[in-house]
Amino acid sequence: MKPFTYRSPADAADAVRTVAGDPAAVFLGGGTNLVDHLKLGVARPDLVVDVSRLLPAGIEELDGGTLRIGAGISNSELAADPRVREQFPVLSQALLSGASGQLRNMATAGGNPLQRTRCVYFHDVTTPCNKREPNSGCSAVGGWTRNHAVLGASEHCIAVHPSDMAVAMAALDARVLVLGPDGERTVPFTDLHRLPGDAPERDTVLRHGELITAFDLPALDIARRSAYRKVRDRASYAFALVSVAAAVQVEDGAIVDARIAFGGVAHVPWRAYRAEEALRGAPASDTSYRAAADAELADARPAEGLDGGNAFKVPLLRRTLTATLRDLAREDAR
After folding, report:
1. Mean pLDDT across the chain
2. pLDDT tens for residues 42-82?
3. Of 23, 77, 106, 137, which alpha carbon lies 20 to 30 A from 155's?
């Protein structure tokens, strides 16, 4: 581990000024991602600025039914909150499927979506990786690709975003409250993360020194009928091969509205707008669900690799979406 200076500022504004003023500085929240990368030599900051005690750690109900989630709340507390479980079950389920209990107790809501989009080659400092060292190459291309992207990838990076919470937040039209050197701004959650393009080292649209302080979840009646389904290699803690966050409203056997996002298949939490559009007005049937999946996956580009590649993710995601929507539609019809 490279030696670094540790600092604990007086407040969030001081923390932002400190990090913004040093290109080699980083924020430390729960540390469940950063500490691993420090140990591996992947992250090599000169200065670590601790914000773990500076951010709001509660949930506030705003006018109109919006829930404001403080960035400092732990994943465990957020998942267990009765308002979240009742109004946004998809978020609670995603958090509970995302990590072991010990990690959920440490990890924060603000840090969870900011996990580095990564793969095994990113962690191996002996291999080229464009995310770790820009323009060094992508070892995953033509390598071990089973867990990698089928949507939105580029020749520069085919890794997938690891957060389960972020998939649910993308489906729920959440908004991100950000504090930076120039003041506060709000970012739609679906705009927070970047596709790799030719600059995969940039995971998000946040500028250096900007800090997430809270999330706003707008009141969505449809969100009460929502679910998160995660397919992984083992039932214990593991990243998703594919995952689906979905909410659906069914009336008289037809789909009135839907919210869908995918995980495990792209460099970002993938909001499935094409699938949503295909579902609206369609019969609540497996045929409609499969057609919606096919509409979203029309541009899927599986990766070939030494391990046989990841083409299996396309039919797997189709089946996962179909099963999730089928269960939700049955529940809505009761």
Report:
1. 96
2. 999 999 999 999 999 999 999 999 999 999 999 999 999 99
3. 23
Please state the three-class secondary structure of 126-186 as a single string.
CCCECCCCCCCCECCCCCCCCCCCCECCECCECCECCCHHHHHHHHCCCEEEEEECCEEEE
CB 217 within 8 A of CB 292: no
Distance CA 220, CA 210 (A): 28
**For residue 152, pLDDT beyond 60:** yes
